[in-house]
Amino acid sequence: MKRTKKTAKNLWLIVLGVSLGLNVLVLAYVLKPQVNKLISKSKETAAKKETANLFDEINPTKGFEINAKYGDLGPKMIASGVIDLEKFKQTYEKSAQPLTKEQMKILTQGSDKKIKIDRDNSYFLLNFFWAAGLANKSKALTEGDIVKYGEGKVGNFASTGGWSLSKTQPMDYYAKSDLIPMTTEQENLVEKVASNIYRPCCNNSTAFPDCNHGMALLSVLQLMAANSATEKQMFEAAKYYNAFWFPSNYYDLALYFKNKDGKNLARFQPRQY
Q1: Angle at alpha carbon of residue 94, lines to 85 and 202, rounded to 5°
Q2: Nearest to residue 163, comparing CAs of 136, 138, 142, 134?
């Protein structure tokens, strides 16, 4: 059969098409690992970004400020002995987080700055307010759940017997100092709010401060109440203080509520946390 130029051209196009197709298949096979790696890396980057965004929600970089000042709370605690300054300093030095000049001033001279919890000082505030909650004279410690469930052995709880940064035994300071004077109405407000805030470590309410986090948050609420904070403001503060003290737990909560309702932590009512 005599080949025409048209037939030869068609055959050439067919051969070219088959060749290109094979090249594409070979190229796809060869590049498949690299493509999968790029896809995996893209997903990993997206996941890291999502994690960072959620972490910024629960532990905002700017911190969370309450409408209350340190005042002379630090010097009072050192004077009473519930904080032994040298023991306090050594604790932070051993944890590779030595006290800053500002923190030393808060402890020894007091401060007119409003209290803000952030990623850098959350550990400092945990022990600072733990001491305040332990020593402050309040109905929560003299008539509340810790007395009820302590059954005469209040000193055996982690928040009481576990405090090791005082001059003498921790129970020597238990509810002994008027660090944060409150009216009856303010104490009742603290009890109302604290009874509805639960800790992820033991699932007990802040009204039953049997661990360091509970005792610390109790005194934060007391200081806020003494400075005329509202119930809503106290719940909001508790949400962020617990988030800074329990970041992994609150990350899980934030992720759950975001997937469930599509809302971030800032838009959720504190009672839900």
Answers
A1: 85
A2: 134
Cα separation of the two ends of the chain: 86
Tell me: pLDDT of 6 over 90.
no
| 50 within some domain | no
Residue 147: name the closest of 132, 136, 164, 160 by CA: 160
- 231 in a domain, yes or no? yes
Higher model confidence: residue 268 or residue 115? 115
Residues 220-256: tens digit of each pLDDT:
999 999 999 999 999 999 999 999 999 988 888 878 7
Domain count, the chain: 2
Residues 141 and 218 in one domain: yes
d(CA 225, CA 231): 8
Same domain membership, residue 261 and residue 185: yes
Using alpha carbons, list the distances in angstroms from residue 30 to 26, 77, 125.
6, 70, 57
Residues 6+ apart with CB under 8 A from 181: 226
pTM, whole model, 2 decimals?
Answer: 0.80
Amino acid at 178: D
